[in-house]
Specification:
alpha/beta, FAD/NAD(P)-binding domain, 6-stranded mixed sheet, 20% helix, globular, binds flavin-adenine dinucleotide
Length: 127
């Protein structure tokens, strides 16, 4: 595990995760965004109903949001899947932190935001 204990780890770096990260970055928090890059609308080429962005490619909106968030020096990005979350066992409750693990890495934070989105599962109807 690295020495850094982030203020917040955000699992999910799409619209919700990036929105949360932006507010935290502006408050000078140390943030790690972990994202495996599977936005729910990745198959869509145009977005609708989002003011100022009607008709824009949702990948462009996500890329712009990511670039703006990553301009803040206190934000790190990890491309990959988070597989596990656990409370680290510390004797001092005040220094307790959360550990997030993936394939070959482990990171720690004081707070955790899950911005995982939803997964569409397609089933054939029996009708
Ligand atoms: C075909 C389609 C068209 C759409 N069109 C519109 C539209 O025109 N206008 C509109 O407002 N909405 C639209 N939506 C809805 C929109 O896509 C969702 O509201 C939006 O993507 C939700 O954002 P989110 O950040 O909550 O989740 P998501 O965009 O789903 O992002 C979740 C992120 O978390 C990551 N993640 C999940 N689990 C893990 C893990 N364990 N470790 C690491 N990363 C993880 C995923 O890889 C993903 O990048 C559309 C959806 C679909 C399917």
């Amino acid at each position: 595990m690295r020495d850094t204990i982030y203020d917040v780890i955000i699992i999910g770096g799409s619209y919700a995760g990036l929105s949360a990260a932006l507010q935290l970055a502006r408050a000078r928090r140390r943030v790690l965004i972990i994202d495996e890059g599977l936005r729910r609308n990745r198959s869509a080429s145009h977005s609708h109903g989002f003011i100022t962005q009607d008709g824009v490619d949702p990948a462009v909106i996500a890329a712009q949001a990511r670039a703006q968030v990553m301009d803040y020096a206190t934000v790190d990005w990890l491309a990959g899947r988070a597989d596990g979350v656990q409370l680290a066992k510390n004797r001092e409750p005040a220094s307790q932190h959360i550990e997030v693990t993936g394939g070959a890495w482990r990171h720690a934070s004081r707070r955790l935001i899950l911005a995982l989105g939803v997964t569409d599962s397609f089933r054939r109807s029996r009708a």
